[in-house]
Amino acid sequence: VDAHGLEDKYWRLVGNLLAQLRGLSDGYSSARSQEGEPSLSEIELLMLTMVDTDMDAVVVAAYTHGRLVNEHFKHPNKTTGVDEEDNGESTTGGGVAVSELYANPYRSRRHHGHCSALIQLAPNLADLWVTHATWDSYRAMLRMVKYLDMPLPGVAARRMVFTANPSNLYSADDFYELDTGLTVLETSITNYNSSLWAEIKPQTLMTWVRAMVANRLARTGEEWTEIQDRHKSGTCNNQWMVVD
């Protein structure tokens, strides 16, 4: 962001999102310190922010180093150590190696399936219906509709409405209504080819950042797609639908 400066509105908006993330971290840590509880660093809050989207990036790092994603992914027939079925990859506490997790379509759908979307013409072409449903575990029921009104310089969209978790800076569902007249939604595409993770490089922007920048700058579906495609990370791959 610093390398591009404030003259580039794309990177200015990226910097704005990072500043908001820093504000969340500062606010949370300030409140926790008064209670004598642990604070959260910016990187820790960023990891929490990516739980429902770009955690694929964490999977990449784990796979590269032969480690678990986390200990919540358990194999029903394994309890400890390394198993021949895991091709020698390290597991702990009965967990599943990353390559196995993503090679098994059922397990991948079970842990990463997240939403459904529908775009349909009304009878007699009277209207166009756009709807989105997020399905998740009970822990994810704490959700809200956010309304942002931010008169940022150089943007097309000042106001947007989206569904999200309370601390998120974006909609992880994703479902956005913008005052440019765009409706933006997506459903995620799971990567079943673990060899593709080797193609991911760190010199990119996470999907949620690119989507929010595209929301601010685009006036048409074509513009949104072009902007969101810049600096793509290869994580949280989605089928995006933009109604303009």
From TrEMBL:
It comes from the Eukaryota. Keywords: Glycoprotein, Hydrolase, Lipid degradation, Lipid metabolism, Signal. The keyword Lipid metabolism applies. GO terms for biological process: phospholipid catabolic process. It is an enzyme of class 3 (hydrolase). One of its GO terms (molecular function) is phospholipase activity. One of its GO terms (cellular component) is extracellular region. The keyword Glycoprotein applies. Its EC number is 3.1.1.-. Residues 73-95 are annotated as: Disordered. InterPro entries: PLipase_B-like. Putative phospholipase. Belongs to the phospholipase B-like family. This is Phospholipase B-like. The lineage of its organism: Eukaryota, Sar, Alveolata, Dinophyceae, Suessiales.
